[in-house]
Specification:
The complex is a heterodimer. Chain A is mainly alpha-helical. Chain A is built from 16 helices and 4 strands. By secondary structure, chain B is an alpha/beta fold. In chain B, strand 4 and strand 5 form a beta hairpin. Classes of the chains: A mainly alpha, B alpha/beta. At the A-B interface, helix 1 and helix 10 of A face helix 2 and helix 3 of B.
């Protein structure tokens, strides 16, 4: 192993990156821009700020003797932190506001709501004597957070209204803890996206690897290097090292950027270290795919197009795009998916680094990275150098 | 010195290289000694670069053998690469590195001791008149400047066998002289040099022996004077015309 040759070529590669504005942009500026724009666009930033929900309320239970039940419900709802109650006189106006996105949710207290509550308390153990009513809840289907956070909140209000504020401490055989999703109301959309964005930011490395290798080949440089004592494993090693250096800088920049715009993942230093490790492992995958793209590309121009064969599926089926149905199954084959998954577990779910599943993810990404890299090296050495 | 141990610097025997349709080199045999400067002449497509590429371990022969200092270019390629300095016909270089960085990179690849490398780079840059431009990006160089740098890249390891494919093409007379001086110096140090060229005056002035090839076949071999006498010609160009009935160099 010629350490000096590897070092010289690694230095050469790093110089090539830093001296080409377009390459520097794609490797360093692009990840920063992606992080910053997505973060600012989708983040209700400000540390731990409680998301506020505008909830419309229509009370149809006015012509009753038990008006205090509906009143209680309204009171409990108004008292809740992060909920602004807006009163409506008609169903249509409330629905219209909801459709226009001016409300996060719209609640209709039905006629006979009070009677219904009273009928329960008259004979709590005789279900057949109750008069049933339904509180209608409409949520803004355009808001992921509202549709997941509001229903359990309303559920809780109904309970408190029926059983009083001690509802949860009431001595019942079946206990209902406060719904965990209530906590999720402090998350912004960015929190859900960030893990995917981190994985996404480094995917374009594939293109740079493919382009720079095809350029070296087209310029006759690979041949010229082939007349020197340089061994091909030394050449490959220098490539991998140079891109790992870039990957480290990429991860640092992306984390710093997201921190600067107010992102505070639910983790500690060990979690960050883990995230670093899995993103580096992911870079191995990208370098490998870059080598494969270079092998099958006849020129540097073609290489950028061919890279997208490897970039697109990983991007759409494994990062911040929501998946469903068939896409989810195909996504299982995308290394980026495991990166996103692990990052979600530590950053969003707040799981400790000792969690087994993230280590399985890391092992998978690393294993896939080594395999793709080796395949890439073998293919490139065999078919890509001339 | 070990260079005296092996009899031939370069030995080519019955060398044949076929591509799909053409036979680029056709049963070529040649022996080149240490301290010899050998010129390979021939028209476009004669097979000159193919011979150089086989000796540089980039191409494998279809038939026959080639060896550099008794090391087979196929089976002992690593040993050959330790010994050669190659200047390809198309100068390959990193355009985002400076001229100096390109040269130093090849010195590093050949493991030239650092202090020697530093001194040698300065020395050679000065000889080819590239000191002032050495720290500019090579991508901005003119064609002749690139060729000068490319030649230095090939010779930075002080190779025992230099394989130079048209090293002086597109160079102005001063640079050409500078490269010739390099080559003579190598020769006087007992190194072997193969040089391909289209310039007859270059071959006549520089080469100890020349081989003329046409369509992959060696059609004449000897010192320039021998060949001119033998064919009753004023210069090598005339020799070639007499041998093949065609012009050596296409009118430019
Ligand atoms: N990789 C290749 N594939 C197919 N044919 C090739 C290849 N390389 C060279 N040839 C053919 O081999 C023949 C000899 O080519 P070569 O480059 O050796 O000629 P040359 O003497 O160096 O010519 P020039 O003076 O133009 O440099 C040509 O007909 C060329 O087309
Ligand atoms: Mg040629």
């Amino acid at each position: 192993m010629g350490l000096r040759r590897v070092t010289a070529l690694t230095k050469k590669n790093v110089k090539m990156f830093t001296r080409q504005p377009a390459v520097l942009f794609l490797l360093l500026l692009f990840p920063i821009i992606v992080t910053a724009t997505f973060g600012l666009a989708f983040g209700g930033m400000g540390e731990g700020g409680v998301t506020n929900f505008d909830v419309g309320l229509l009370n149809l239970d006015t012509a009753t003797t038990d008006a205090q039940w509906a009143g209680n419900f309204e009171g409990n709802l108004t008292e809740l932190d992060g909920i602004t109650v807006l009163h409506y006189e008609a169903n249509e106006t409330g629905q219209a506001e909801l459709l226009q996105g001016n409300l996060d949710a719209f609640i209709v207290i039905p006629e006979g709501f009070g009677d219904s509550c009273t009928s329960y308390w008259n004979s709590p153990f005789n279900g057949s004597s109750w008069t049933n009513t339904t509180v209608e809840l409409y949520v803004d289907s355009g808001s992921m957070i509202a549709s997941s956070a509001v229903p359990p909140l309303v559920q809780q209000i109904i309970l408190t209204t029926m059983f009083g504020s001690e509802a949860t401490t009431l001595d019942l055989p079946v206990d209902m803890g406060s719904p965990s999703m209530v906590e999720a109301s402090t998350f912004s959309q960015w929190d859900f996206m960030a893990p995917g964005i981190f994985a996404f930011a480094s995917i374009f490395m594939i293109m740079i690897v493919a382009q720079s290798l095809t350029m070296e080949r087209d310029g006759g440089l690979l041949k010229r290097l082939g007349t020197t004592p340089l061994k091909s494993h030394e050449f490959m090693l220098s490539q991998v090292i140079a891109y790992m250096v870039i990957a480290v800088i990429q991860v640092l920049l992306v984390f710093t950027t997201s921190y600067a715009i107010g992102y505070r993942p639910a983790t500690d230093v060990s979690g960050l270290a883990f995230a670093f490790a899995i993103l580096l492992a992911f870079s191995l995958v990208n370098v490998g795919f870059g080598l494969i793209a270079a092998t099958i590309s006849k020129s540097a121009e073609i290489a950028s197009g061919v890279s997208f064969i490897f970039i697109m599926p990983q991007m759409f089926l494994g990062t911040f795009m929501p998946l469903g149905g068939g896409a989810e199954i195909v996504g299982q084959f995308m290394p980026s998916n495991y990166v996103t998954n692990a990052l979600t577990t530590i950053f969003l779910r707040g799981a400790p680094v000792s969690t087994l599943s993230i280590w399985i993810d890391l092992a998978l990404v690393f294993a896939i990275g080594m395999v793709v890299l080796l395949v890439g090296i073998v293919l490139f050495r065999r078919y890509g150098t001339r | 010195m070990s260079s005296t141990i092996t009899e031939h610097a370069i030995k080519i025997e019955n060398l044949t290289k076929r591509f799909e349709e053409v036979t680029a080199v056709d049963r070529l045999s040649l022996e080149i000694g240490w301290g010899e400067l050998f010129g390979l002449l021939g028209p476009n497509g004669a097979g000159k670069s193919t011979v150089i590429n086989i000796l540089s371990t980039l191409l494998e022969p279809s038939e026959g053998v080639a060896a550099v200092a008794d090391h087979d270019v196929v089976f002992d390629a690593d040993a050959v690469r330790e010994m050669i300095g190659v200047c390809p016909q198309e100068p390959a270089f990193y355009e985002h590195l400076t001229g100096r960085e390109n040269i130093e990179l090849f010195g590093d690849l050949h493991d030239v001791p650092r202090d020697v490398l530093k001194e040698r780079v300065e020395n050679m840059l000065e000889k080819i008149g590239m000191v002032e431009d050495a720290d500019r990006r090579a991508g901005q160089y003119s064609g002749g400047m690139i060729r000068r740098v490319s030649t230095v890249m090939a010779l930075i390891n002080d190779p025992r066998v230099a394989l130079l494919d048209e090293p002086t093409v597109a160079m102005d007379p001063v640079s050409k002289r500078a490269v010739w001086d390099f080559i003579r110096e190598l020769k006087s140090n007992g190194k072997a040099i193969i040089l391909t060229t289209h310039y007859m005056e270059e071959a006549e002035e520089l080469c100890d022996r020349v081989g003329i090839i046409d369509q992959g076949k060696l059609i004449a071999l000897g010192t320039p004077t021998e060949l001119m006498l033998q064919h009753n010609a004023e210069n090598l160009e005339e020799v070639f015309i007499k041998l093949t009935g065609k012009q050596l160099r296409e009118a430019v």
